[in-house]
Design brief:
Structural class: alpha+beta
Number of domains: 1
Order of helices and strands: HEHEEHHHHHHEH
Helix content: 55-70%
CATH topology: Methane Monooxygenase Hydroxylase, Chain G, domain 1
Strand order of the largest sheet: 2-3-1-4
Largest sheet: 4 strands, antiparallel
CATH architecture: Up-down Bundle
Distance between the termini: 38 Å
Radius of gyration: 18 Å
Length: about 210
C-alpha cells in the first residue's frame, strides 16, 4: 500500500477516535471513499469527509442549550482529530498552520468554533489551543487505537461502526487493566467532549 493511503488511514482513525470519545457513533469508514450503495444505505449517518460517516447525537431542547453546545463541541473535536492523527503519523508538527492545510476538516472546525466565538481572531486563538490539547494528540492509548483501526483499513479497505466500537471497547478495557495495575494501595474511603464533494444534505452544521 502506498504511503499516502497509510497516512489517510491514520487520518480516518483520528476522526473515529474522537467520535467514539465524544459519544458520536461511527457508521462506516472507507479508505477509498464510499460507494453509491453506502450512500443509499446510510440512513441518518452523515459524511464528515469522503472517508468517514458518523451519526450526530440528538439533543434535548432548543439550539443553543447545553446538549446542543456539547454536540457542536464534539464536531469541532472530531474535525481536528483527523488532521492531528495524520500529522503525528507523518511526524509533522500538530499546529494550526498544518491543520489548516486539511481544507474539509478546517472548514468544519472553523464553522463549529463559530458557534462559541463569533469574532474571528478569538475563534482562531481558541482553535489553536484546542488543537494543542486535542485528545488525538495527548490521550493515553490513542496510538493503540490508531494502529488497530488504520491496520484494519489497510487490510480490508472498510470498517463498520460495530468494528470501530469493538476497537474502542478493547482500548478502554486495556486502559482499565493498566490503571488497576498502577493503582497504589490505599486506605478504604466511603466516596470515592462543507465538503464540496458532499451534497448539501450531508452538511453537519446546525
Amino acid at each position: 500500500m502506498n504511503t499516502e493511503l497509510e497516512h489517510r488511514a491514520w487520518h480516518i482513525a483520528g476522526h473515529a477516535y474522537a467520535a467514539a470519545m465524544c459519544g458520536f457513533s461511527v457508521h462506516k469508514l472507507a479508505l477509498d471513499g464510499f460507494s453509491d450503495a453506502d450512500i443509499e444505505q446510510r440512513g441518518t449517518a452523515r459524511r464528515l469527509d469522503p472517508w468517514t460517516m458518523i451519526r450526530v447525537p440528538n439533543w434535548d431542547g432548543v439550539n443553543g442549550g447545553r446538549d446542543h453546545a456539547r454536540v457542536i463541541e464534539g464536531l469541532m473535536s472530531i474535525a481536528v482529530a483527523g488532521p492531528c492523527a495524520e500529522l503525528l503519523h507523518r511526524e509533522m508538527p500538530c499546529d494550526i498552520a498544518h491543520v489548516q492545510q486539511f481544507a474539509i476538516d478546517w472548514d468544519q472546525a472553523w464553522k463549529s468554533a463559530g458557534f462559541f466565538w463569533e469574532e474571528e481572531p478569538l475563534r482562531r486563538s481558541w482553535l489553536e489551543r484546542w488543537i494543542h490539547s486535542s485528545p488525538a494528540v495527548i490521550s493515553y492509548g490513542a496510538h493503540d487505537f490508531y494502529t488497530s483501526v488504520a491496520g484494519k483499513l489497510r487490510e480490508e479497505g472498510t470498517m463498520t461502526g460495530e468494528e470501530v466500537q469493538a476497537a474502542w471497547d478493547r482500548l478502554k478495557a486495556a486502559e482499565k487493566r493498566s490503571r488497576c495495575r498502577r493503582e497504589p494501595l490505599r486506605k478504604p474511603v466511603l466516596l470515592d467532549f462543507d465538503d464540496p464533494e458532499c451534497p448539501e444534505e450531508d452538511c453537519l452544521m446546525f
